[in-house]
Structures are given as C-alpha cells and as structure tokens.
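::Encoded backbone::
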Amino acid sequence: MKKTGSLVATIALAVLITASATVMATTNNKTPPAQPSPIISLSEANATTPVVVDKSWHDVANNGSATVANIFSINPNYGHLKLLLKNLSSQPVTVNLEHNDTDKLYFSLKIPGNSSYTWESFDQGYPQSMRAGVYTLAWSGGSAVVNGTVNGEAATQP
C-alpha cells in the first residue's frame, strides 16, 4: 500500500509541477498591452513622410448669445493647423482666429448661413507652421445667435 500511495503522490506532484510550469510560461510570454501612440498618416504632398497628429478636437459654438469663444492650444512642433468651421444657423457669422500671447490675428472671415469653411494654415500663408500657444476662435453673429461647430487638428506637417 505504501508504494501505491507514494506512486500516486509522485504522479500528482509531477502533474502539479507541469501545470504550474505551463501557466508560468504562458503568463511570461504574454505581450504587454499596446501603449497609445500618436496618430500617424501620410502627407498628401509627400506620401513617404509621416505626419504625426498631436491632437484632434471638436467644439461647439452655441451658448445662446451672439458671441462665442472657443479656446485651444497648439503644442511646440505641431503648428500645422486645420479647422473645419460649420455655421449651423441661417444667418452669417464672422469668425476670427487670434494667438493670445501675441494678439496676432490669423484670420477674420465671414461664413454664410448653413455653410462651412475649411481653413488650413499651410494654404493660408503659414507654410512654416503656426506659433505654439493658446488661441481664441471668436464667433460673432452680429444681432443673431451663433450656432456652429469647429473640428480642429494640429500636426507636424500639412
């Protein structure tokens, strides 16, 4: 009887050791979870140069008044800006983009009612990119209530 009990114990111990080794090997071979990475796309101008997008955002210009300010920032080395401005009201709006630290006015444009406009810094006279810092996008509807949206993207290249 002692030999049978000893044999069963030895087999059980061998199975336990094998199972533990398999679990440890499986656990140790797991790849770590993927880290978030910047969004990379290929520039239309040069399909071999990667464009790294620092950030993309969406904001609403509608607070029930005739003036609305959207504030955003551009980080260093990500000064190529693209804005999609949508006027959702039936009345025209004027939109200004200003760099807060220098008071530099980048544009002032009028968007007709129920229209949109895409502004790209590269195509609008800023091929070397825009300054880093905080910007204000000021919407004015005159006597009409502003109702609009902005989608923005800041990247390393146009």
Notes: The chain has two domains: 1-32, 51-155. Residues 12-48 have pLDDT under 50 and may be disordered. The radius of gyration is 29 Å.
